Amino acid sequence: MSRITSALVAFVLIGTTAVVADAWTVTVDSRDNAIDLCASSFNNDAATVALPWYRGIPYTVSMSSAQAPVYFDSSHLGSFQGVHLDGIIGTTEATRTWMVDGLEPGTEITIPPSYKNIETLAYIPECGNLVDNSGAFELEVTPTAWGSWPSVPGEPVGIAAILDPETGAVYTFGGGCNDDGFTNITHWLNPNSDDEWAAIPAGETGPSARWFASAIYDPNPGGNRRMVIHGGAIGTTSLSDVWALDLVTQEWTFLSDTGPSCRYHRAVYDANPNGNPRMLIHGDSHHIGEETWAYDLVTNEWTMLHGSAGAPPPRGLAGLAMYEPEGGPRQLLVFGGGHLSVYRNDLWSLNLDTLVWTELMSFGDCDPPPAREAARIVIDPAHDTLIMFGGKDAGSRYNDVWYYGFWAARWWSPTVPTDGLPSERSHHAMVYDPNYSAMVVIGGINQYPCEETIASVYIAEFDEEPCNPSSVSPNDTNVLTTMTSQAWPVPTDGIVRIRLDLPQSGPLEGAIYDANGARVHTFTEPDALRGDHVVEWDLTNRSGERVPAGVYFYRFRAGNGTTSGRVVTVR
Fold first, then answer.
1. Do 112 and 58 contact (CB within 8 A), yes or no?
2. Which residues neighbour 305 within 8 Å (Cβ) at sequence distance 6 or greater?
3. CA distances from 43 to 46, 84, 126, 468 (A)
4. Helix-, strand-, coil-residue percentages of the chain, each rounded to 5
């Protein structure tokens, strides 16, 4: 039987939507594999090729090669080339059973949105007079539009969410709207089996109603799988308590209330192979500033993992994710956020072995995302890529999607279809389903009054080439080292010189950014020499115009060395 390969990620957007589609490709390599497909539709033991659907997505299936098997098919009263499709699919009881009896090369079959994550099968119904074409043929499965899930009960703002990778079920907790309507009910839905979201009341012994709590999935080795929540707020009163929901018994357990009070933070799970598994939190500038805290999931004790010294600037409502590159150190990633009306678009990595923060730069000709807070980020490990969606600044909310490819060391925004593009939003939750490469975005706010917490589904692809790929590549472990730099004079009204200590000879790339994160000038040298090196900037932008007076930032990269700093210009 053939294997299914995919260069896709599925977006399941609850209360919103996102991104562009490509196709799964299913290859049958030989006549022997084609014979394996020979079956009767009444034979439950027949060999088949399974085509995976994600719940709610409409697809097309096409056969791209003319090398498909030819055989006698009584349903066509003659020879037929291709395969048959059969499955249980549909959005309602009336359309749930669905069957297509023939797919020929060069043709396409439209499949309605799946009711649940149920496989559709490709097979050959009759093997009489099978012709050996001695070639491979392919089936292409392409998502075509946005789908939908049932709406999530409750208010959509400040919901916490996890995904249980053992079952594929999504769990939500809390939420509110405009300092009102707070809840402590957990809702959960398994896209493989459930018609609607089920409720788990907290009862008298569970956590209080709140919004903006953080949540992690805890595999809890030696015990039942858990959702662990921390903090949040009742209105604007921040909370510090930690609770665990047993995903098997669906019972809450109180764990601690001695840690930091937070409501604008995020949390991630860290397996911590050198110690006990833990929950890491960061990003509430009003309460923990630049600090990073760790909660031991075995001893139920809090410790400050990293203080303010050497940390990224303070921020709230930052995006947070755990990055575990193959062969490299575990890293806590922080994107964007806001503090005192200053919004950011920087991406930082905390090496959890050395506890050193490094700003991850973006090279090539791609500008980074606009600065924002309340965006969400996840990691797609198969493509070594960070995915970001949504967020807000002082005057706008966003519905854009951005990728940061660790393999390419750059941001880029993929092509997003306008048909079905969701409204701009912030303060949503987002989880990632590794079984389907699916991203689930839950709730969020576009404007008051709050909208219904609906669910929308789409599939995204990673085949799009980033704009002007950089000639500078990271090593296989994705570990960047800091190189020294100094800009002088500061402030300046003329040429500024930036001295760099290059770790190796080779390509050098860099850029100047304004205070809003927009790229204003770029530098490229294909053969910079190792050691002391000076770059000059004449205070012009990429159009050759003089930039306004103000604060600017530079970032440079050579090999695995990176550096950043500040330049102040005056008139």
1. yes
2. 280, 292, 293, 294, 355
3. 6, 14, 11, 53
4. 0, 45, 50
Length of the chain: 571
CB 247 within 8 A of CB 171: yes
The low-confidence residues of the chain, meaning pLDDT below 70, are 1-52, 64-67, 69, 71-78, 87-101, 114-137, 147, 364-365, 416-421, 454-482, 515-517
**Six token digits for residue 176:** 């509110």
| Interacting residues of 295 by C-beta distance below 8 A, sequence separation 6+ | 230, 242, 256, 259, 278, 279, 280, 281, 301, 302
Buried b (16+ CB within 10 A) or exposed e, 16-34: bbbbbbbbbbbbbebbebb
Return the HEC string of 203-222.
CCCCCCCEECCEEEEECCCC
Q: Say how far apart CA 131 and CA 135 lie, in whole Å.
A: 11
Give me the residue label for tokens 């991104």: 19
- Report the Cα 391 to chain-centroid distance in Å: 14
Number of alpha carbons in the 13 Å side-chain half-sphere of residue 116:
14
Q: What does the pLDDT read at residue 519?
A: 78
DSSP H or E stretch at residue 31 = helix 31-36
Two structure tokens written together for 58: 């409409």
CA distance 314 to 426: 20
Q: What is the pLDDT of residue 199?
A: 96
Q: Which long-range contacts (CB under 8 A, 24 or more apart) does 236-242 make?
A: 236/179, 236/263, 238/262, 238/263, 238/284, 238/286, 238/287, 239/208, 239/210, 239/213, 239/263, 241/207, 242/279, 242/295, 242/300
Rounded (5°) CA angle 179-377-11: 95
| DSSP for 46-97, written as a single string | ---EEE---TT--EEEEE--TT--EEEEGGGTEEEESEEEEEE--SSTTTSE
Using left for φ > 0, alpha for ψ between -120 and 50, and beta otherwise, residue 376 falls in beta
pLDDT of residue 92: 56
Note the pLDDT tens digit of each residue in 367-421.
Answer: 789 999 999 999 988 888 899 999 999 999 998 989 998 877 789 888 766 666 6
**Amino acid residing at 424:** E
Q: Which of 306, 281, 296 is nearest to 356 (CA)?
A: 306
Tally DSSP H helices, then E strands, for the chain.
1, 46
Gap between the Cα atoms of 337 and 347, Å rounded: 10
Pair of tokens at residue 305: 């993992």
Structural contact between residues 310 and 356, judged by C-beta atoms closer than 8 angstroms? yes
Sequence-ordered list of residues with C-beta below 8 angstroms from that of 52, at least 6 positions apart, any chain: 4, 24, 117, 119, 141, 436
| Per-residue pLDDT tens digits for 414-456 | 876 666 667 889 999 998 877 777 778 888 898 878 887 766 6
Q: What whole-number distance in Å separates Cα of residue 293 and Cα of residue 280? A: 6
State the DSSP code for 34. H
CA nearest 410: which of 371, 376, 361? 361
pLDDT of residue 374: 96
The CA–CA distances, whole Å, from 72 to 47, 64, 101, 545 equal 19, 21, 14, 72
